[in-house]
Design a protein that fits this description.
It is built from one helix and eleven strands; from the N terminus they run H-E-E-E-E-E-E-E-E-E-E-E. It has a four-stranded antiparallel beta sheet with strand order 4-11-9-6, with no helix packed on it. It has a four-stranded antiparallel beta sheet with strand order 8-7-5-10, with no helix packed on it. Strands 1-2-3 form a three-stranded antiparallel beta sheet, with no helix packed on it. It starts with a helix and ends with a strand. The relative contact order is 0.17.
Length: 165
């Protein structure tokens, strides 16, 4: 039988990964973990069933629990060399995938040195199959692009540095 600490570790690993569903069965025990649909910040649900007890005396067998390995991809986050308070940061309003252009065949919305207006579209952040156009929010010049095309971005992560006019 799995110990509660082992179950907690499995829940933590699944919660930190991109795995949506996980099922573990051993000697009549079953643990099923499912993440929510992403609309709330609830922990994965856990359904555990007890082993089936037979009328005869059960034979006790050792349970071997193998460690769960989860591949974690580190995403490097580019940071500006110096923090310049005169530069405006265009930040990601959501978690998603950064795209510099409207499609792979087209050129990027902006490059370093391009002039932008507050309503200028500077990139797309795709979240849950929705492509969200991100605007510059300020008039100025793109000084630095802080993320790469196709990179995963977090909520509040700086995407661009803009020197305001």
């Amino acid at each position: 039988m799995l110990k509660i600490q082992e179950i907690r570790e499995i829940i933590k690993l699944i919660d930190q990964s991109s795995i949506e569903k996980f099922t573990f069965e051993s000697n009549g025990e079953k643990i099923k973990l499912e993440k929510g649909n992403g609309q709330s910040n609830t922990a994965p649900s856990v359904i555990a069933t007890a082993p089936i007890v037979q009328q005869e005396a059960p034979v006790v067998q050792p349970v071997v629990v193998e460690p769960v390995t989860v591949a974690v991809q580190e995403v490097p986050v580019a940071t500006p060399q110096t923090e310049d308070p005169s530069l405006h940061k265009v930040i990601s309003p959501m978690v998603g995938t950064f795209y510099a252009s409207p499609s792979p065949e087209e050129s990027a919305y902006v490059q370093n040195g391009d002039k932008v207006k507050p309503e200028s579209i500077v990139c797309i952040v795709e979240a849950m199959k929705l492509f969200n156009e991100i605007e510059a929010e300020i008039s100025g010049e793109i000084v630095e692009i802080l993320v790469k095309d196709g990179q995963l971005v977090e909520y509040g992560q700086p995407l661009f540095l803009v020197k305001s006019n």
